[in-house]
Amino acid sequence: MSDGPALHDVGMLEQVLAALAPPGVLIACRCVEAGDASHILPDESGTILSRTPSGRDASGAGRLLAHGLLRQLGHPDVAVPRGKAGEPVWPIGVVGSIAHDADIAIAVSARAETVRSVGVDIELATPLPPDLEPIVVTPRDRLGDCDPAIAGKLAFVVKEAAYKASFPLDGEVLGFEDIAVDLPAGIVTLANGRRIEARVSISSHILAVAFVPAAVED
Ligand SMILES: CC(C)(COP(=O)(O)OP(=O)(O)OC[C@H]1O[C@@H](n2cnc3c(N)ncnc32)[C@H](O)[C@@H]1OP(=O)(O)O)[C@@H](O)C(=O)NCCC(=O)NCCS
Predict the structure, then answer these.
(1) Cα–Cα distance between 100 and 31 in angstroms, integer?
(2) What is the architecture of the domain spanning 22-117?
(3) Which of 49, 75, 118, 215 is most buried (CB neighbours < 10 A)?
(4) Helix intervals (H) in the chain
């Protein structure tokens, strides 16, 4: 866990995300702009249908980042549609993840030899709604020495990043209760026994990167 700077601009966010990502995982960040929906490719558009204009802009910003990362990995002009469960579908041999809110989009991607799977999430470092906290945090979670006011949000972000890393491997939909976080150890353990490494930064935002190293077999 690290105390990062306030993420005032994309440059700072890039630095924080790059420090969290395992070696060889490419990262990209962007402020969501009105009109970013125009970056959604025709092969992606049909999979991103029922969204508000701002939601489509956020998805478009994420797609712009994903396309740029794929270019760097030698896959120019390749679409990243949403799968049936909302997961981004990367070309064969590539893994990655997208997260966004109304203001910021981030994406990570790598060759599958570099990392078996990766997930990211970002949220403002604000308290979770009180009714959500007992759903998200379970007695098995170890969150370390964090501000109790944002402990619930911290667990939420790490669990979402871990879910985004695990779903592409087995298609299993998980609840918060299926995901046990041990932040001091940097490990998330799923109810099915899968272990996922997790790194987190807390500043104005909580940013988490979760990944399964390439060497890990099922
Ligand atoms: C995946 C999920 C956690 C994303 O959370 P979110 O707050 O809606 O949105 P985020 O900004 O964090 O991420 C959105 C991106 O996640 C990615 N995503 C969505 N479903 C995904 C999945 N099943 N696996 C991996 N990535 C997924 C998509 O790229 C999406 O962006 P896009 O719609 O522009 O393509 C959520 O949508 C979901 O599927 N929840 C069901 C399961 C659940 O809630 N379990 C609780 C424990 S995690």
Answers:
(1) 9
(2) Alpha-Beta Complex (3.90)
(3) 118
(4) 10-20, 42-45, 53-72, 133-136, 151-170
**pLDDT score for 68:** 98
Position 6 scores a pLDDT of 57
pLDDT in tens, 19-64: 999 999 999 999 999 999 999 999 999 999 767 999 999 999 999 9
Whether the CA torsion 28, 56, 136, 215 is positive or negative: it is: negative
Length of the chain: 218
Instruction: Assess whether the C-beta atom of 163 lies below 6 angstroms from ligand 1.
Output: yes
CB distance 11 to 84 below 8 Å: no
80 Cα nearest atom in ligand 1: 35
Of residues 41, 17, 37, the one with CA closest to residue 29: 17
- Per-residue pLDDT of 74-84, as tens digits, reads 999 899 999 99
Candidate of 137, 164, 190 to mutate for ligand 1, largest count of ligand atoms within 8 Å of Cβ: 164
**Residue ranges of the chain with pLDDT lower than 50?**
1-5
CB of 56 closer than 6 angstroms to any ligand 1 atom: no
How far, in Å, is the centroid of ligand 1 from the Cα of 122? 11
What's the CA-to-centroid distance between 102 and ligand 1, angstroms? 14
Query: Residue 53: CA atoms inside 13 Å, Cβ hemisphere, count?
Result: 3
Atom of ligand 1 minimally distant from the CA of 98: 29
